[in-house]
Amino acid sequence: xxxxxxxxxxxxxxFALTIGMHIVLAAxxxxxxxxxxxxxxxxxxxxxxxxxxxxxxxxxxxxMTVAVGAVSGVVMEFQFGSNWGPLSQKAGxxxxxxxxFEVLVAFFLESALTGVMFFGxxxxxxxxxxxxxxxxxxxxxxxxxxxLAANSWMQTPVGFITDAAGRFHPTDWLTILxxxxxxxxxxxxxxxxxxxxxxxxxxxxxxxxxHHPQSASARLMVSVSxxxxxxxxxxxxxxxxxxxxxTLKHQPQKVAAMExxxxxxxxxxxxxxxxxxxxxxxxxxxxxxIAIPDVASLYLRHNLSGQIKSxxxxxxxxxxxxxxxxxxxRAMVGLGIAMLGLAVAGLVLRLRKSLWRSRRFLTLAVLMxxxxxxxxxxxxxxxxxxxxxxxxxxxxxxxxxxxxxxLSLLTGSFIxxxxxxxxxxxxxxxxxxxxxxxxxxxxxxxxxxx
Length: 450
Prior knowledge:
Layout (H helix, E strand, L loop, with lengths): L2 H44 L2 H34 L2 H35 L6 H30 L4 E3 L5 E3 L2 H5 L4 H30 L4 H35 L1 H8 L13 E8 L4 E8 L2 H6 L21 H30 L7 H9 L3 H15 L4 E3 L3 E2 L9 H32 L2 H4 L6
Antiparallel strand pairs: 1-2, 3-4, 5-6
Helix pairs in contact: 1-2, 1-4, 1-6, 1-12, 1-13, 2-3, 2-7, 2-13, 3-4, 4-6, 6-7, 6-11, 6-12, 7-8, 7-10, 8-10, 10-12
């Protein structure tokens, strides 16, 4: 493999590693911030200790997540200058301000006020503290808006002109912020963060119930989060469908890769839903394909005979890595169906008044706790790998966006970042597990003096 291709591969891999780790922390912070608003609000309204216990339990985890997430985000964004210099040079006039506002909000609103949340818990009044919690939650949402606005512009660029050197200049910031894919991407991502957090809360609460069956706060975690999941998952399906329609309009080869669709069906026939296949990109065909005729047309075109442009209708150099997109999409959808199944099973057990007695269900809930974030990562792979070979869709190729760094330096930085992130996440998971095991409701139940 030529050095230039290896440099591109390592730069993409390093960015994928850092953004993959960061997005989990950012999404968990976003979801937990809203969970803390809910539990603190219910504590103030009801004065029931179990709400305050749940709040105190997740507050420490939230603080750790924000602290590590802020640092991992800085590492990720520094790569725009180090590994992706040509991209920054050409698109910095648009991406720079969006990234600046995201960092400004993340550090000065979300991170700073998180310290007030933690250290001011018994030092400021409960109503003032609740206002701080709400500000942190709003800051997390605003931070997501800015970063997703930047990504959406790269996916569906609008509101710009280019000069003779190929640099992008904004002409209308409102148009940029209203990029065609932005509303659906934002809604889909925020819902994914909420669902991922809900299942993590369910899993932790279920684990505590397996060891402390009478824990009121653990029952609250499982019960409330199951209701939230039961509502949000169907909404996410609808939003995902609308997001898919938008993607089909603006990035048709990405959708074709998601479906593994190399050639159009015969006239009058619908698109098959491929349950499994092994895409062979060089041969433009699938191996060991298992498909249901016409079914894909229902969710792609909302009828039984609609068709989409197949991969063979695009220039080969403009087609993304099909196998990665194809399997990542099925992982996302499969986990979504499994999570919906768990939420429905929880509803059935609740109606039978046996939710807390079913150790099998609680064990399954523990095993499913990371499912939301794994599905979210799979969706992110679909989004980003499906965008290839472009960094800015249709305008700037990835191979034209990478810095020509020394191979030895790039290899060393990739290894160092990989080791550092692996240690950080291993320690974080160990802390979460140990904290869950040793958490004492008695220690956490001291309320404010109201």
